Structure prediction request, 135 residues.
Amino acid sequence: MKKIISILFLCSIILSNCDDNKLGKRKINALKPSVEEFVSGNKKVQKLWYEDRMDEMGLVSNSREKYKIIVKYFSLKMESLREKKLNNAELKREFPKLIRKLRKDVSNYLTTEQIKIHDDSWEIISTAIYKREGL
Prediction:
């Protein structure tokens, strides 16, 4: 009887770990939104995803704060392009300029590997913005 109880207990632990693994995978997938999720404008998911990307870059404390400040600065500049009521051709010209300036500024604080993660992140974000704005 004790053997059966021990086996059932071990099985329940294994099964609960499998469920945790599934939950972990779902959580990770939730932090990797598609272009469509960025187009939808779900700020909460976007913020979690970007925090995850900074974790992936290994940014902590001071370097993370510097990076966030630079990204926020350029994000505000990008948002201001919409307020300027630029036409599509002007947006297509000005937006990439800001992306390049952002990359130049953050490259002073990032390693080559971190820059790749940054570039991949902004490729997704840029595609979503172009799609949302109909560019």
The chain has a mean pLDDT of 74. The CA atoms of residues 82 and 119 lie 23 Å apart. The helical segments are 2-30, 35-40, 43-57, 61-83, 88-107, 112-133.
